[in-house]
Amino acid sequence: xxxxxxxxxxxxxxxxxxxxxxxxxxxxxxxxxxxxxxxxxxxxxxxxxxxxxxxxxxxxxxxxxxxxxxxxxxxxxxxxxxxxxxxxxxxxxxxxxxxxxxxxxxxxxxxxxxxxxxxxxxxxxxxxxxxxxxxxxxxxxxxxxxxxxxxxxxxxxxxxxxxxxxxxxxxxxxxxxxxx
Length: 180
Description:
Blueprint: H1 2-21, H2 29-37, H3 42-65, H4 72-100, H5 105-128, H6 133-179
């Protein structure tokens, strides 16, 4: 009984290590270096995240259309997960810069444009699965999560932009009145 308990505890202790081995970083070393160089620059950093997310969607499209691709379903899941991970990081960075009080008005405009683009591309991908119902069920959760993230992100980004335009408009007025 004691041996079985030790084995059980050992298996449980090893499980997180095994699970972590399968987690992939969606960014490559060059992308990580670029982000590191823009850590304090909201506009440059958010543009990079938009670029990286766009690249992940382009990869999804290549996987979907290339007839030579093997393991299409696995690669499609990976591409969707990579997109979602990068997009989530984009949102985290927007929140971080906003919490710091940075002026994101200029930085948010390309993000909002990308939200629309990403949503359109993912909806087109979803409709293309209509002809392959067996594949559609494989991606329903991940695709739904990606679309939900984009829809929520688009609303949050637009709301933040409106909030920032109001905030910085008042700061500019206050600055003018303070110098007179």
